[in-house]
Amino acid sequence: METKLLRIAELAKSNTKMKFTSLAHLLNEQSLTHCHFELPNKKATGVHGTTKEQYTENLEENIMDLASRLKSKSYRPVPVRRMYIPKLNSDKKRPLGIPEHEDKIVQKGIAKVLNAIYENDFLNCSFGFRPNRNCHDALKILNFYIEKRAVSYVVDVDIKGFFDNVDHKWMMEFLKHRIADPNLLRIISRFLKGGYMEEGRRYKTETGTPQGGVVSP
After folding, report:
1. Rounded to an integer, what distance in angstroms lies between the CA atom of residue 15 and that of residue 121?
2. From CA 46, how far away is CA 80, in angstroms rounded?
3. H-type helices in 15-161, by residue range?
């Protein structure tokens, strides 16, 4: 998969208007297995409580079944488990949506594909949720500009409830500028519409994308 992703990245860089028509086939048994092992251990579990270790016990059969459902278009993600964590400098709490381990595997694979395409479109000054970049890297660049350049002001902006209010329709329209594979778009749409479980009840998600998912950012 890595070789194919490099090729996608090269094409995306050489033609910023190219639409990719065949991507879902990259979510095959081999790549899904790699994604499984790349996921961190001992993380919060989804509604079924399946851990990475438990999934590993019957890994070959589990991955084979997952790949088969993806290929036959019958794969549907499980609703995420809603939990809350304190928000920094606020009395409010931030909602998180914890996917099942199997769904984390698929999300990891999708994120790799999206990164291969969109990393070439992002500005060099952006750092949020990008591979091999973190807050410390952003602070280093900010520090350089403040110390070495004539800076009159710094603007700190936060979009209120951004992840909670992402418009599904416009998100899918945006993706279609670069992705013309209906199979991959269908899977992404199912994640957006997958819903969440809270206190034993299932809720629909008409807007937003759950924080806590691998592919959400």
Report:
1. 10
2. 6
3. 29-38, 52-57, 59-71, 101-118, 135-148
